[in-house]
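During the reporting period the student researcher (J.K.) took over the structure-prediction task from the postdoctoral fellow and processed the backlog of single-chain submissions. One of the processed entries is reproduced below for the supervisory committee.
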Amino acid sequence: MFRLETDRALIQAFRPRDRRVIEMPKGVSFPYFVRDYLAWTETSGARVYLVFAASGSVRPIGIIFRRDSLGGERMASMCEWCHTYGASEVGLLTTDVNSKRRVGVSLCADLRCKDRLEDAADRAGRHPGEMLAELRARMSRFAQEVLGIKVESSSSVELSGDRN
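J.K. obtained the following structure tokens:
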């Protein structure tokens, strides 16, 4: 769980290169408490936004995905984060690594993985906590390993403060 104090804090979660294209989520007032993660789709449906806190992170991480349509008939695929399977629910989402490189990943098109995992846990009579922790870990690994986003932990902030 984390709290976004202002709209500026939400914008600061994203990489500087992405901040110019952010469309703020509808119906969010600040301060805003986020239990697992915050995801929303912009009005045009072309972009999907994700804000989450990596384990041990001081500040949230924001990623902007584009929904890339490949045209033609959609094939069923599996979300790499929550393992939902479907043709209309799961699709290719892409994001920039840098100005010359873009990556794609099969994910729930609306990033509502949390809802799907909670529903699956309810049907199985299980608590969704462990499944949601694994989901956040996959998000964090993607941000760090694929996009190269550094997770700023509380210990690194303390260390950097000690150097001065």
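The committee noted the following: The chain has four helices and nine strands.
J.K. will present the remaining backlog at the next meeting.
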